[in-house]
Design a protein that fits this description.
- The chain is of the alpha/beta class and 104 residues long.
- The chain has one domain: 2-Layer Sandwich (Transcription Regulator spoIIAA).
- Helix content is 37%, strand content 25%.
- The strands form 2 sheets. Strands 1-2-4-6-7 form a 5-stranded mixed beta sheet, covered by helices on one side. Strands 3-5 form a two-stranded parallel ribbon.
- α3 links the parallel β6 and β7.
- It is globular and about 35 Å long.
Length: 104
C-alpha cells in the first residue's frame, strides 16, 4: 500500500510511502480521504516528506483532496514538503491555495 494512515486525537495524517507522486495513486488517495472524513475526522494532514518528485497529475490529486475536505468543512494541509517540491508549488502558485506547514 502506498499510503500509511495514522489517526491522532486532533488530526489524521496520511503519508505517502513513495518517492514520486505521479497521480496514479489518485483512487487510493481519494478513497482514503473520503473514508477518513466519513469517520467524522475534521482535520487531515498529508505528509509529503518522502516525496521528491511530483507530476501535474499528482498536484491535481492533492487539489482534488483539498476540495473534498473543504466541501465537507474539514481542515486540510500538506506537511513535510521538501524544498524541491515547495519550489515546484511556488512556481505554479499552488502554494497560495494549498496550506503547507512544516509539521502538524
Amino acid at each position: 500500500m502506498l499510503l500509511e494512515i495514522n489517526d491522532g486525537e486532533d488530526c489524521t495524517i496520511i503519508k505517502f510511502n513513495t518517492h514520486k507522486l505521479l497521480g496514479t495513486e489518485g483512487v487510493e488517495f481519494q478513497n482514503s480521504i473520503v473514508n477518513t472524513l466519513d469517520k467524522g475526522v475534521k482535520s487531515i494532514a498529508v505528509d509529503l516528506s518522502s516525496i521528491e518528485y511530483v507530476t501535474s497529475w499528482g498536484i491535481g490529486m492533492l487539489v482534488h483532496a483539498f476540495t473534498t475536505c473543504t466541501n465537507r468543512e474539514a481542515n486540510y494541509s500538506l506537511i513535510g514538503v521538501n524544498k524541491r517540491v515547495k519550489d515546484i508549488f511556488r512556481i505554479i502558485k499552488i502554494d497560495t491555495i494549498l496550506p503547507i506547514h512544516d509539521s502538524v
